[in-house]
Design goal:
It is a single chain. The protein is an alpha+beta fold and 234 residues long. β3 (72-77) and β4 (80-85) form a beta hairpin. The longest helix is centred in the first third of the chain and has 13 residues, at 24-36. Helix content is 39%, strand content 16%. α2 (24-36) packs across α4 (56-67) and α6 packs across α8.
């Protein structure tokens, strides 16, 4: 009985269209939870907090439509939901963006390689870039929490493998890593020469958390003994 009385009633209901209704109480609860949360919330997390029987996905879609013309929009990133400033108003935040510490070109290139080629080791990053990658560059990216140490490659020296994180998806507004631009999109944005070789391919990103066949789990202390293995790798 206590559990039932703790739940809020799904009233009042208002006509949404012919034969359909909108759950105003549910909309208000979802809206409140999303505004109060400092992190994006998943469908499962919202379902646990709303009254039993609530059609949470439908409520999210209704709320998304309601906020579509407003200054903040309801968006889905990393498989979770949150409110974000409308894209066409991003220029208003320009000053804040400029005040943030900018990543170096080496860090941006390294981040892009990790995003598209994960799981990838430092030696593999250097092979793709064509230049050496300092440990400091990887340390900076680890500090941003956009990349993580996944495991160790089953090769001599057992080098650490790197991949992206949920924070990477949230920061760049991606639902999943497969939403990263492909070859034609990169060309259209001017990030690739239009005369790239016909054999040039942009890999399909995959951030599956499960280790691959050639990866071993990180052992205790792995976060602090990477220098030895990276040295052995190079």
């Amino acid at each position: 009985m206590a559990a039932e009385t703790d739940r809020l009633d799904l009233e009042p209901l208002e006509q949404k269209g012919k034969g359909t209704t909108v759950d105003l109480a549910g909309l208000r609860m979802v809206e409140a939870l999303l505004f109060a949360s400092s992190e994006p919330l998943s469908l499962e997390e919202l379902t646990l907090r709303l009254p039993e029987g609530s059609d949470v996905l439908s409520l999210l879609e209704d709320l998304q439509q309601t906020y579509a013309p407003r200054g903040v929009n309801l968006v889905r990133v990393a498989g979770k939901w949150c409110f974000r400033t409308a894209e066409d108003l991003a220029y208003l935040m320009h000053r804040n963006v400029e005040e943030q510490r900018k990543l170096s070109r080496a860090a941006l290139e390294t981040l892009a390689i990790i995003a598209y080629h994960q799981p990838v080791t430092r030696a593999e990053i250097e092979e793709i870039r064509g230049v050496s990658t300092s440990k400091g560059t990887l340390d900076v990216l680890l500090e941003t929490t956009w990349i993580r140490m996944r495991g160790r490659r089953r090769t001599p020296g057992r080098p650490v493998t790197y991949g992206t994180t949920e924070q990477f998806l949230v920061h760049f507004g991606l639902e999943n890593v497969k939403d990263l631009p492909g070859l034609e999109e990169l060309k259209g944005a001017g990030l690739l020469d239009s005369a790239v070789p016909a054999s040039f391919m942009v890999p399909t990103p995959n951030d599956d958390a499960a280790l691959t066949e050639d990866e071993d789990p990180l052992e205790d202390g792995s976060l602090f003994d990477g220098d030895t293995d990276e040295t052995a790798e190079t």
